[in-house]
């Protein structure tokens, strides 16, 4: 039986219209600064990397420039590794793990692979610690033609010319306790559907592409992260967040059918990370390092197979 959850906006059983979305947006409060916490770090990286402004997100009265960072010794004869973070702005370690990788790890790949890193795809949501953009749209269900999310459309335009050259794409995410307490109830309310309670896994896991899972690659990433933090066990029914576990710490989603970020390229090696920052067994520092470790593990495996 469905267990309804109270949500303070809308009428149960009826999808939101413009009025409800406006009410939801008015409730969203800036809680941190994209300029201070993200752009300041990107500015420091300019000494060693090329920084590309690939879009501008405007939600009046706010405007947010979007930046990607790439290695300065870019070579057209090398494949590309794409790293994306902050598709869901509230997933903090996705943003700061991507920046950490650039600060501490990127140099080791010089002359071996080109790096393109978009560390914070959804800055409005980053500041408000939310999953959706200002239009109550989930960018990570919007990576498709004629995307309704400006954040998703901007990234697709950035990577489009490189699509056939991208060897590995790792998209950095988190699963948090607020998924169950806020974001899933909000989703049910927005869509006029009953809320169905789920579970939150304690630990790191991966969502592979069910259309091209590359199991050895997924396990290489899991092995790299296991050196930093714990891997989520399966629930008693053999699932994680309701999806069957196909290997330790790995589930599968159909990326393109769902409009997920990790499906925007034809990269042979692609995955979506999920860190659990609310675990009593993990610190914010561990979560950031787990994301950086996943990027290293992904690129290292891809290079050994290339």
TrEMBL record:
GO BP terms, alphabetized: proteolysis
Keyword Hydrolase appears in the UniProt entry: yes
Keywords on record: Hydrolase, Metal-binding, Zinc
Domain Peptidase M14, chain residue ranges per copy: 30-306
Cofactor names: Zn(2+)
Superkingdom per UniProt: Bacteria
Keyword Metal-binding attached: yes
GO MF term list: hydrolase activity, acting on ester bonds; metallocarboxypeptidase activity; zinc ion binding
Family to which this protein belongs: Belongs to the peptidase M14 family.
This protein's name: Peptidase
Originating organism: Lysobacter daejeonensis GH1-9
Top-level taxonomy: Bacteria, Pseudomonadati, Pseudomonadota, Gammaproteobacteria, Lysobacterales
